[in-house]
Amino acid sequence: MLERLLITGAAGGLGRLARSRLKHLARTLRLSDVAPMEAAGEGEEVIQCNLGDRQAVRDLVAGCDGILHLGGVSVERTFDEICEANLVGVYNLYEAARAAGQPRILFASSNHTIGFYTQDVRLQVDDPHRPDSLYGVSKCFGEAMSSLYFDKFGQETALVRIGSCFPEPRDHRMLATWLSPDDFVSLVECVFRAPRIGRPIVWGVSNNQATWWDNSSAAFLGWQPKDSSETFRAKIDAAMSVPDKDAVDAVYQGGKFCAEPIHEN
Ligand code: NAI
Ligand code: 15L
User: Fold this and answer.
1) What's the pLDDT tens digit per position in 208-236?
2) Helix (H) or strand (E) segment spanning residue 202
3) Atom of ligand 2 lying closest to residue 174 CA
4) Ligand 2 pocket member 208 (CB < 6 A)
5) What is the pLDDT of residue 126?
6) CA distance 200 to 127
7) Which of 15, 55, 160, 200 is most buried, by the most CB atoms less than 10 A from its CB?
8) CA 8 – ligand 1 centroid, Å
């Protein structure tokens, strides 16, 4: 069991899920976000902090032996917004971890690191990045930062390229990208319970019938996703029409992010 697990992005969708479902992983959960959070309960510490604030992040990470890094801008935004949270913030986090004895990090990366691959391609974890947005580029930056800190200092990070983690898939594309909340929870458990992880890249995706990603290189973690998006196929078919075969959502793995403009400041 960990002594103190830091969860960044604790006010967000996955952060609230982690707060409610992962208490058993550590004696204390340290919950942090730039946004307000619910007051601390038993076994919790709540610290509001901007990831862009170097000293605050250093103080935040001190005393933690695991970090579930969910905080940051999670969709396409202006470069300046993304820069503070996902570039400066990630540098601050890795430097703070280096000063704090290198707690293991789970970095919430994204399918948008590879979003411009077409949906007929089956990807391995070492296929080159093809980001579909500035947001996707920022996640490539985070992955590169983890590589530097692993090779230079031995810092362990699990890079989890999350597909679409929501209670249910929301459209036809998500039948291939969906990660169920239960499977997210079991993946985080595996990452923090494994004796040694190094720096694996893991596709954060459930046991869907439709799939574009090969997770065999992460088998050593012992993670076995149980849910399948097929349960929801009929519901999605009834709720919306299948996208046209030339629609961005049907062509590219990153879907609509591929058609996002560059947002100006
Ligand atoms: P979210 O947007 O609901 O939560 C992100 C949290 O980060 C927010 O509460 C926000 O206030 C916080 N944040 C933003 N800027 C910050 C800053 N400068 N300092 C401190 N905190 C800041 O996102 P969600 O869905 O919970 O995702 C969590 C992580 O997983 C994100 O990093 C996202 O990029 C990644 N991810 C999520 C996917 C999903 O399907 N939910 C898919 C792929 C990646
Ligand atoms: C992501 O990276 C986003 O954080 C999330 O909100 C979804 O858009 C997801 O990817 C997706 O591709 O469905």
Assistant:
1) 999 999 999 999 999 999 999 999 999 99
2) strand 201-204
3) 13
4) no
5) 96
6) 14
7) 160
8) 9
Catalytic residue among 91, 94, 117, 135: 135
Residue 4 CA to residue 8 CA, distance in Å, equals: 13
Q: How many angstroms is it from 168 CA to the middle of ligand 2?
A: 13
238 Cα to the center of ligand 1, angstroms: 30
Classify residue 194 by its DSSP letter. Answer: S
Please check whether residue 191 is in contact with residue 156, taking contact to mean a CB–CB distance below 8 angstroms. no
Q: Identify which ligand lies nearest to the alpha carbon of 174.
A: 2
Distance between CA atoms of residues 73 and 38, nearest Å: 20
Is the CB of 110 inside a 6 Å radius of any atom of ligand 2? yes
Reported as a pLDDT band with limits 50, 70 and 90, residue 265 is confident
Q: At 37, which amino acid appears?
A: M
pTM: 0.98
**Is 135 annotated as catalytic?**
yes
**130 CA distance to ligand 1 middle (Å):** 21
Q: Partners of 162 in the beta sheet?
A: 110, 204
The response to whether residue 253 sits with its C-beta less than 6 Å from ligand 2 reads no
pLDDT in tens, 98-144: 999 999 999 999 999 999 999 999 999 999 999 999 999 999 999 99
Alpha helices in the chain (DSSP H): 13-21, 54-61, 79-82, 89-99, 134-153, 174-177, 181-193, 233-239, 248-251
Q: In this structure, which residue's CA is closest to atom 4 in ligand 1? A: 12
Percent of the chain topping pLDDT 90: 99
pLDDT digits (tens, 9 = 90+) for 166-209: 999 999 999 999 999 999 999 999 999 999 999 999 999 999 99
